[in-house]
Amino acid sequence: MTPEALNKTIESGNVTFFSRTKQRLWTKGETSGHFLKVVRIAPDCDNDTLLVLPIQLDQPVTKAPAAALGMPTISGYSCISLSNC
C-alpha cells in the first residue's frame, strides 16, 4: 500500500490499493460495487505492516472478503506491507 493509497483509504473509508499493473490507485468495488469498508487499521507488532480490518457491506460478516482477494489474513485482518512507504 503506497502512502497515496493509504491516504485515500483513510479519507474515503474504502480500502484502496495501488495497482502496479495499471500504475494507478484502485478502490476495491469501483467496478463491481462490492466495496470493502474499513473497520480498523492498525500496525503489526513490528510496525512494518498495516493490518486492515475490512467488511464487505453486501456480504455476511462471517465471510472474509480479503481472503477472497488472495490477501494473507490474521484473525480477519488483511496484511498490507509498508515496504513501498
From TrEMBL:
Residues 1-53 form the Phosphoribosyl-AMP cyclohydrolase domain. The keyword Calcium does not apply. Pathway: Amino-acid biosynthesis; L-histidine biosynthesis; L-histidine from 5-phospho-alpha-D-ribose 1-diphosphate: step 3/9. It catalyses: 1-(5-phospho-beta-D-ribosyl)-5'-AMP + H2O = 1-(5-phospho-beta-D-ribosyl)-5-[(5-phospho-beta-D-ribosylamino)methylideneamino]imidazole-4-carboxamide. Coiled coil: none annotated. Keywords: Amino-acid biosynthesis, Cytoplasm, Histidine biosynthesis, Hydrolase. Its EC number is 3.5.4.19. It comes from the Bacteria. InterPro entries: PRib_AMP_CycHydrolase_dom, PRib_AMP_CycHydrolase_sf. One of its GO terms (biological process) is L-histidine biosynthetic process. GO terms for molecular function: phosphoribosyl-AMP cyclohydrolase activity. Pfam families: PRA-CH. This is phosphoribosyl-AMP cyclohydrolase. It comes from Citrobacter koseri (Citrobacter diversus). The lineage of its organism: Bacteria, Pseudomonadati, Pseudomonadota, Gammaproteobacteria, Enterobacterales.
